[in-house]
Amino acid sequence: MKQLKKEHEGISTILAFALIPLSGFAMDVYIPSFPHMATDLQISESDIKLTLSLYLVSYGISQLFVGSISDSFGRYKINIISLMVLLLSSLAIAFSSDLNTILVLRFIQGIAISFIVVCKRAFFVDVFTGEKRKHYTSLVTVVWSTAPIVAPFVGGYLQESFGWRANFLFLALYAFIMLVLEWIYSGETITHRHPFKLKSVLSMYRQLLSAPDFSLGIIVLGLCYSMVMVFGMSIAFIVEHEYHLTAVHTGYCALVSGLAMFFGGLLSKKHVNKPAFQKLQLSAVSQFIVVAIMLTTATVFHQLYIIMIFVFLIHFWLGYSYNTYFTYSLTSRPQYAATASGLASGGSYVIFSIVSYIVVHVITIKDQLTLGLSYFSLILCLQLLLLFVRKALQLRAYSA
């Protein structure tokens, strides 16, 4: 087994951070192409959204299991094989014109990317300790939030210049470059492997999921990112159908959303030593105030840039919340690094893929009012959930 060399630790850390945004990049890069894909493939808007929802469900469910596989069999070989699968599946999608084929390949991509991201999140727990570990793990969601910044922006220009297939060719190129660099510079990082026995695996899951602070945190993460997904699944149609603008403008709107999450994550990192519930409550109240203003002014303002101001503020605070609880989930159970990472992220992906798909089908989102209503419903659920989270965090603090 090729072990990570000490002299390659620095570049391997950079490569790990470069792969962390991959799940979001594969999700967001082709969002500006949704209307064009529907036209080119002669399918409905719902069918196009299904390619995203299926990827999210696959990615989320996979993470519930790949963490324990990685904790048992290691990180390096799994990561290399998964990058190969991503490369080949991206090329296949780029040259396909059949919806069913694309759906199957997107499902496969979700599984491959879940292995890659879970292994790389566990890398920081494997390699670093103490404050350095806390520093790097708090950076994980900050770096991850660069995907919503870069991907739709790149995707918008690729769509305008070359068409929707260029998005998946770009994803294939990204996978190929990372595969080569990982092969040269990375290596195995796990020091203690848990036996891959059903009893042992179920025991790990039981310990994590039976802890209220951890299990409730999965729902918190899911509701937070549901807001991003509702926006992502709707913005292309708002921009191109309601305002008659191009895919490039969709990319700019997604860029605003991504920057908001990025800066929210940075603020959360700066407040890393503050009590988690205090930060979550601050975020929820701030979002509630913003969405209230968004709804009450919906009949007054009709400009796209006004909508994006509200989106920026709401996504800033949800980025703050997401970073807060995800960092807590990873650092509170270091003995189950990959499993905890997989459960927290995977469970939240399953939740927000289902919740966001339901929201966009119940509420036809086409303007400031309908987008605000979707935010309001999710923020209200989050605020009610925090009543239980507070007790769970207090119990965890007492037991520790």
Automatic annotation (TrEMBL):
It is a multi-pass membrane protein. It comes from the Bacteria. PANTHER family: MAJOR FACILITATOR SUPERFAMILY (PTHR23502), POLYAMINE TRANSPORTER 2-RELATED (PTHR23502:SF132). Its main location: membrane. InterPro entries: MFS, MFS_dom, MFS_trans_sf. This is Multidrug resistance protein MdtL. Residues 12-393 form the Major facilitator superfamily (MFS) profile domain. The chain crosses the membrane at residues 12-32, 52-69, 76-97, 103-124, 136-158, 164-185, 214-239, 245-268, 280-298, 304-322, 343-363, 369-389. Keywords: Membrane, Transmembrane, Transmembrane helix, Transport. The keyword Calcium does not apply. It comes from Mycovorax composti. The keyword Transport applies. It is found in: Membrane.
